[in-house]
Write a structure and sequence with these properties.
The chain is an alpha+beta fold and about 150 residues long. The chain contains three helices and eight strands. The chain has two domains: about 45 residues; about 100 residues, no CATH class. InterPro entries: MmpS_C.
């Protein structure tokens, strides 16, 4: 009876060794790998902070002397809809921070356009995600229009 179980025990030991059962290091590596995959999936689905900025190009001296700011009409389009406003340039939010921020998911598209109304020789638009500029464009000339669009990644 002893001799018959010996080959069976060897086969069982081989299977355990090949599958990693009972090997704490292999189980820890697999668990760490699964945790890393879950973190990556969560990060990929998390909304991104998108900054939209509009600035004047070459402000006219007489506007600066009078204390006036250049103005523009700005339209921003997201999956939530379109916002349009007449703003002083450079555009700032309610807390006096540059631009306007949006929270968008990866794969969403943000597009915008801006037209200089008065006070500058042109206009610039910029779209950034987490401090990285995705697109920046400039248009010059009286009443010039600039457009920017980006897919959030």
């Amino acid at each position: 009876m002893k001799n018959r179980l010996a080959p069976l025990a060897l086969v069982a030991a081989g299977i355990l060794a090949l599958t990693g059962c009972g090997d704490p290091e292999a189980e820890a590596r697999e668990s760490a790998s699964q945790q890393a995959e879950m973190r990556a999936a969560l990060e990929a689905s998390a909304p991104r902070t998108v900054l939209v900025e509009v600035e004047p190009v070459r402000t006219y001296d007489f506007y600066e002397r009078l204390g006036d700011k250049p103005t523009a009409t700005v339209s921003v389009n997201t999956s939530e809809g379109t916002e349009q406003a007449d703003v002083n340039l450079p555009m700032i939010d309610n807390q006096a921070d540059p631009g306007a921020t949006y929270s968008l998911a990866r794969g969403e598209v943000l597009s915008m356009s801006a037209q200089i109304e008065e006070g500058a020789a042109g206009i610039l638009c910029r779209i950034s995600v987490d401090g990285t500029v995705l697109v920046e464009k400039t248009s010059t000339g009286r009443y010039s229009v600039v457009s920017c669009a980006a897919t959030i990644e």
